[in-house]
Design brief:
With about 110 residues, the chain is of the alpha+beta class. Helix content is about 20%, strand content about 20%. Strands 1-2 form a two-stranded antiparallel ribbon. It starts with a strand and ends with a helix.
C-alpha cells in the first residue's frame, strides 16, 4: 500500500478492503516508516504438564522429579493464547513447580 497526501486522499490506488480514508490527514510533521514483519514469539507445543507443573508422559502418568514451566511446557493455553499470557504461565507454573519440587525433596522422593 503506497500512501500519499493529496486532496484529502492518502491512497495512490483504491484500497483492497474498501477503506478510502483515514480519520486524520497526513498534512503536518515528518513521517517515518519501518518494515514490520511477523515472527515467532511463543511456541505452542512443548512438554505436557499437569496442574502441579509435573511433566506427564503420553499415557498421562507423572514422570517423577521432572517439572516444566513457561515455553518448555505445552498445552497450558490449548491451541493458542492471548498475547501476554505466556508471562502469567511462566510465573504461575514456575512457582508451582518449585513448590512441588521442594515438597518432593522434603518427602525424600
Amino acid at each position: 500500500l503506497i500512501l500519499f497526501h493529496a486532496e484529502s486522499s492518502i491512497y495512490s490506488t483504491k484500497p483492497e478492503f474498501g477503506r478510502e480514508s483515514f480519520k486524520q490527514a497526513l498534512d503536518t510533521g515528518k513521517y517515518y516508516a519501518i518494515e514490520v514483519t511477523p515472527g515467532i514469539h511463543h511456541t505452542m507445543g512443548g512438554i505436557a504438564i499437569n496442574t502441579k507443573a509435573q511433566v506427564i508422559d503420553n499415557q498421562g502418568k507423572v514422570i517423577p522429579n521432572l517439572f516444566a514451566a513457561g515455553e518448555a511446557a505445552g498445552g497450558v493455553h490449548g491451541a493458542n493464547r492471548l498475547g501476554g499470557n505466556s508471562l502469567a504461565d511462566i510465573v504461575t507454573f514456575g512457582r508451582i513447580g518449585a513448590d512441588e519440587a521442594v515438597k518432593e525433596i522434603k518427602a525424600g522422593k
